[in-house]
Amino acid sequence: MNILITGGAGFIGANFVYYMQKKHPDYRLVVVDALTYAGNLKTLDGARKSSDFRFVKADIADPAAMDALFAQEKFDIVVNFAAEIHVDRSIEDPGVFLRTNILGTQTLMDAARKHKVRRYHQVSTDEVYGDLPLDRPDLFFTEETPIHTSSPYSASKAGADLLALAYYRTFKLPVTISRCSNNYGPYHFPEKLIPLMISRALNNEKLPVYGKGENVRDWLYVEDHCAAIDLIILNGRVGEVYNIGGHNERSNLDVVKTVLRALGKNDSLITFVTDRPGHDMRYAIDPAKITAELGWKPTTKFDDGIQKTIAWYLDNRAWWESILSGEYQNYYEKMYANR
Ligand code: NAD
Ligand code: DAU
To answer: Is the C-beta atom of 192 inside 6 A of ligand 2?
Structure first.
């Protein structure tokens, strides 16, 4: 089995590489990644030791590069993680989100069609469903929930999903789509809520909480997401969407306070800053379909996963400090200077 993993130098893609190397040591894995600000080749150091692993620096929106690679590798399966994914950045500069997330998906699917891959899997997000109100804890996103996006990021991901379903119907491309809730765990880029709060708290810096901190996210430990994708690409039905989430809802303020307690820091580091424009209130996934059809269940509860994650960031300071010392500092100034 020869699998293309796009965006494999990023957070979830890299965790997926390690998951697959352990679960299916006989598979060949090829990572394509453009190494944008979010890609970190160092994250793949462990994976690169295997002779069944290849890294290719390329842009998924480059048709010639994708065609040549597909012709050479004759992939069985493509799993597309590559994307621009940070909502705040999509509000600053939507263009690159449309290019990578929509045109990149089209380019990959054209190559997948031409070179007859057995499965094209699109890694999507629960954000395509928009948000749920805080006062209706009985409501969850199912696969039937209408697409209703809030940010340029989620609109670009929804565009890619619709395109994937169109390629299934029109061209019979064997497509599956997964829509997962917020992930957390090792190698999470320190601009996202949990790693940002851990790294800043460790440096005794202010923790910027948007609005009142009451927005709710449905947190899933990244390995549980990887296990779900493995099941979908091997056993999922083509043309289908699968929601992935583990009923681990927490408000942002709860998450930040949990991080502070675990690090022995004081709540006084918390600073409430101007809210994100169009900020989604609550995400909550109903994973009944993937559980019933594929037997997937999450294995890590939030209270355990967050402790494991904090321990990882304590043990791997060099990984995130090298990121903080780069371009990220300028970005932080730009995003937070006027809040
Ligand atoms: P990430 O930003 O950590 O990684 C994205 C990777 O894609 C980076 O390595 C980057 O260099 C690469 N990339 C970006 N543009 C590229 C291009 N044009 N060509 C090739 N490579 C390119 O993101 P992540 O958190 O690992 O997310 C992976 C996927 O999972 C995304 O599709 C995202 O929408 C989806 N997702 C993420 C979450 C989450 O909580 N992080 C939740 C649900 C779904
Ligand atoms: O739900 C899945 C999505 O989760 C993915 O599709 C996205 O790609 C991924 O980035 C993530 O989106 P969020 O916007 O939920 O993640 P983020 O870490 O940016 O923010 C989580 C919550 O924390 C959100 O309500 C905004 C808030 N927040 C975030 C940052 C960076 C703060 O309060 N302060 C901050 O500094």
So the answer is: yes
> Is the distance from CB of 115 to CB of 133 less than 8 angstroms?
no
Atom 29 (ligand 1) nearest CA = 81
Question: d(Cα 82, Cα 223) in Å, to the nearest integer?
Answer: 18
Q: Is the dihedral of CA 296, 234, 153, 222 positive or negative?
A: positive
CB 3 within 8 A of CB 28: yes
Domains and CATH numbers, the chain: 2-184+220-247+279-302+328-336 (3.40.50.720)
Nearest CA to ligand 2 atom 16: 192
pLDDT reading at 135 higher than 80: yes
pLDDT in tens, 11-69: 999 999 999 999 999 999 999 999 999 999 999 999 999 999 999 999 999 999 999 99
The fraction of the chain above a pLDDT of 70, given in percent, is 96
Q: Which residues belong to the active site?
A: 126-127, 153
Per-residue tokens: 212: 């009142």
Task: For residue range 145-203, list pLDDT tens digits in order.
Answer: 999 999 999 999 999 999 999 999 999 999 999 999 999 999 999 999 999 999 999 99
Ligand 1 centroid distance, CA of 267 (Å): 31
CA triplet 78, 18, 178: central angle to 5 degrees? 45
